[in-house]
């Protein structure tokens, strides 16, 4: 699974590079910037996930209390949502300034 995930990440990275050229040739249209930024976040998430799979694959199960796990999951989803909103609003602001 690590190898396949690495190949998928590599393919998305090549797509990201190609799409970056599209972003520049379209004079930084806001939706292309947004897609480009979201793809960058997806690549970072895939790399972090792949790293965690490799690092924790052979460890015994880690004991975490359920309330702590729920709080961590909630904070993770809130952080992801806020990051996506910031990317979308930031690209819209960039277009309005240009």
Shape: flat
Q: If you average the pLDDT, what whole number results?
A: 84
Return the structural class. mainly alpha
* Fraction of residues in β-strands: under 5%
Give the radius of gyration. Answer: 17 Å
Helix content range? over 70%
Termini, distance in Å? 44 Å
Number of helices in the DSSP assignment: 3
What is the H-and-E element order? HHH
Low-pLDDT stretches: none
Could you characterize what this model shows?
This protein has 98 residues and is an all-alpha fold. The chain has helices at residues 2-25, 30-56, 66-97.
Q: What keyword list fits this structure?
A:
85% helix; mainly alpha; flat; 98 residues
Ordered list of secondary-structure elements with their pairings:
Elements: H1 2-25, H2 30-56, H3 66-97
Helix pairs in contact: 1-2, 2-3
């Amino acid at each position: 699974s690590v190898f396949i995930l690495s190949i998928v990440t590599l393919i998305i990275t090549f797509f990201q590079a190609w799409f970056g050229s599209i972003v520049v040739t379209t004079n930084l249209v806001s939706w292309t910037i947004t897609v480009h930024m979201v793809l960058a976040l997806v690549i970072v998430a895939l790399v972090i996930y792949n790293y965690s799979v490799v690092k924790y694959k052979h460890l015994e199960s880690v004991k975490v209390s359920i309330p702590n796990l729920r709080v961590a999951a909630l904070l993770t989803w809130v952080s992801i949502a806020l990051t996506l909103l910031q990317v979308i609003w930031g690209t819209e602001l960039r277009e309005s300034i240009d």
